[in-house]
Amino acid sequence: MSSSPLLHAIPRNALLWLLIAQALVIAPHLFHIPPWIAGLWLFCALWRVQVYRSRWSLPRAIVKLAMMVSAAFAVYVSRGSLVGLDAGVALLITAFTLKLVELRSRRDALVLVFLGFFAVVTGYLYDDSLLAALYSLLPVAALLTAWAGLQQAAGSRQSPRISLGLSLRLLGQAIPLALLLFVFFPRLEPLWSLPQPAEKGRTGLSGQMSPGDIAELSQSTELAFRATFDGEIPAKNQLYWRALTLPLFDGRSWRMASFGTDLLPGQWRKQGASQAYSVIMQPSRQPWLFSLDISESTQADVRMLGDFRLQRNRPVARTYLYQAEAWPQAVAEPLLSAAGRRHNLQLPRPGNPRTREWARQLREQYADDRQLVAAMLAHFNQQPYHYTLKPPLLGENSIDEFMFDTRRGFCEHYSSAMTFALRVAGIPARVVTGYQGGEINTAGNYVQVRQMDAHAWVEYWLPGSGWQRADPTFQVAPERIELGLQDALGDEVAALDNSLFSPVRYRHVAWLNKLRMGWENLNHGWQSKVLGYQRERQHAWLRQLFGEVNWQRIGIGMVAAMALLLGLLALFIIRPWQQRPAPAQRLLQDYDRLMRRRRLARSPQEGMQSHAQRIASQLDALQLQALEDFVTVYQQLQYSGDGNLQQARYALRQLWRSMSPRYLRKR
Amino acid sequence: MQQWLRRWWQRRLPPLSQIRLSQRQVFIVPTVTGAAFAVALLLMLLVAINYQNSLAYALAFLLGSLGLLTALHTWRNLAGLELQARTPEPCFVGEQAQFAVQLPGGAYRRPGIALGWRMPLAVQTDVDTSRDVLVKLYLPASQRGWLRAPRLRVETRFPLGIWVAWSQPDLNMRVLVYPRPLEAGLPLAAAHSDDQREDGLLEMRHGVDDYQGLESWQLGDSLRRIDWKAWSRGQGLWVKQFNELQGSDTLLDYDGLQGDSEYRLSVLCFHVLRLDAESRPYLLRLPDRLLGPDSGAGHRDACLVALALFGKEPE
């Protein structure tokens, strides 16, 4: 024992916990790291265990170097790069694994524990759901347990459970302080930009719309966003969540305006009542947000563009929370510029002659724009159109074929056809994509919008009144708007939704649905209160609390609160009232307790000697001997100071024994 | 500076053979591990800030709070610890002097208490509630006389090694170090022979003056005192008992030896031990005192003490 404690061998208990912790840390990473790392871990763990059992020896430096280089090479081959978050995390986990075979001293083990904590943090970048957060408590507790186990003497055979209890206690005691820090620690803007987790086929709206796109999206029950309203939730048929406008048409697809043409906010006039709401958006990797017509946001990183959509200054890579206020009756762009007019009347030259002809006829019939639009909607309503997720494939003149031959389509078919016809009739129009409706969670007063609520509708422009919304799909399948996709399509959705465990599938089983709603509620709270607790939220909250955000004052307050909390914890942990008295005093207390139990209590002013004399008559010879022994040793201890504490304790034990109920019975 | 520090310690923790480390006597500082942990936390916080990840913030804060909080545990683990010095056994120069410190079990378990004279500390032990722990510490005894133990260092890094709580109590421990026994010829002189012979070796004079009677022989009795006549008569082994007279006792005389004083004391020490092992009475004469004649453990110890402290300042 001549070296620093950090260089001592690793206790068995700690090694066991390290292996458990590693498995727990690595498991959730398996979703995004190359799977061979799991095999590598098993191999390294086996090696380390064999080293512990003195069967194998740790690898030499050259072998370790070879392992490291080949592992890095394997990461490069699997990920195609050694930079970027994915490769970085894969490298981190590999290092975390390989460190196992050079685990000699406690210092190595500590490095492993710290790497483990870091690996848990990187795991949050991939998954920060409530379940993932709860799960991560397991590896954290295991790492702490291993750490606590490292402090034991090398040969210690202490039960692994003792370190576990200790680490759980520490975690529990740390929670109040951590909460305080979480709430008040200032959320800073990112100091520099970092690589983001790679995207793996996330579903969502894209910048263009071809027939079949939205129908495909409708098969996903994945959450798109949740919206919480300050007041009452508007009726479902008012919930048109605008994401994008698609003014450009090439005969088949509708696309966004080319970049830069609509950067300035459109002209609009507030009118009527407004409604405040906040949205927690799932990561979409796109900058556009979802808003009710017409919304403005005071958030610094969000602005309104020319087509009245809200856009963030960078893509939404993580769950994102924003506040907005909608003015449903506002007048949008009462005056359309010549360029805007041209834009929204643009048509590809050839194609779809039958629809063009039909629109021209309508124009001749109705001089008034409003009447024309009404007639078009009536057409969709009265003709035998069918709303379906599985429309037949369309050929060259897709709009013609849909309008007059197949008559079966999804919202993108209807909105596309109507916009086309309106433009032929000389009315500026565009396709708007976004989401419609959503599931209203009455308990949480929020609307939950899934990918399957994706929708496309039409916006046309009237002089003086601005942009108006028209939804041909509503004419064909009103239940789609009033109730939702599932009610409109019933079996078709159930058949398409091929996931047996999809929660939405069982929405007609009442208790299951209730359970699901509760779970959604919990997730909503998690996202808004925890994940969404970033700069904006924090400021809003602090303003609510203190009136203004003055970091100097908050800082002082926080330090004071922390000191107070630490003081309380100190009281709880140290328990000064439990600090035991001096040993001699303790002996006296034990003696008094014994005498009280035997109904021979010593009165407060009575000395031990006189007490012993007083009760002597009630004791038998053995007890008297034990009493005398104890009194003698105790007094030596108490007064001459050279008494033997152990001897006194022994004498007291003898006295207890001689007066125990068992002995008394025997007598 | 060192002087000042020593005086400061003296005021803070005056030497006491029984001590309970009070709040003012326990100090706490972060360790190297603690610093490394702080760096790791800072990295986590950077990830949290740059990725704006609430969970990363939460974990960094949780671990940070935990680290802060373990200071309380570390401190509690040492504060209130009782240390009792046991009276140490004397030893000889060249041996390791053993000091025993007793740590009585208290109201709660105190794992990982380390004790020693200097870093790295020699002993680590857990102090349970149920029983006392006896810790043995060693110091090389290089000089005869009183060996005063330096201030003890007692510390604990429990539970995570982020903090170290320590104290330096002085348990007022000292051990008497006897001279190193040195085997060498001895000019023996009887105390009564005033005409001390210069040539040194005298024939040994056993106390043969007053014959007392016979006792049965026991292992350790000198063979010279066996009553061989009785044995030859087949009456068994008997030892003649003499009441030795003062005049005939063996004299161990400091002045009768040559060489420097340490050498002389070492030789005397050897002979005290030898004569004691042979259970023979002897006298020890030092320039300033005369011990004996006597025999037995008490006399031997008195002689050894005198040898150990010869020429030393009384403490």
TrEMBL record, chain A:
Q: Which domain of life is it from?
A: Bacteria
Xref: InterPro entries: Bact_TGase-like, Papain-like_cys_pep_sf, TgpA_N, Transglutaminase-like
- The transmembrane residues are 33-49, 61-77, 83-101, 108-126, 132-150, 162-185, 554-574
Q: Which keywords describe this protein according to UniProt?
A: Hydrolase, Membrane, Protease, Transmembrane, Transmembrane helix
A GO molecular function assigned to this protein is: peptidase activity
Q: Which Pfam families match?
A: TgpA_N (PF11992), Transglut_core (PF01841)
Q: Which residues form the signal peptide?
A: none
Query: Do you know which Gene3D superfamilies this protein is assigned to?
Result: 3.10.620.30
Q: Supply one GO BP term.
A: proteolysis
- What residue stretches are annotated with the Transglutaminase-like domain? 403-474
Return the protein name. Answer: Transglutaminase-like putative cysteine protease
Which species is listed as the source?
Thiopseudomonas denitrificans
UniProtKB/TrEMBL annotation, chain B:
Domain of life, per lineage? Bacteria
Query: Which keywords has UniProt assigned to this entry?
Result: Membrane, Transmembrane, Transmembrane helix
Keyword Membrane carried by entry: yes
Its recorded name reads Uncharacterized protein (DUF58 family)
Give me the segments passing through the membrane: 26-49, 55-75
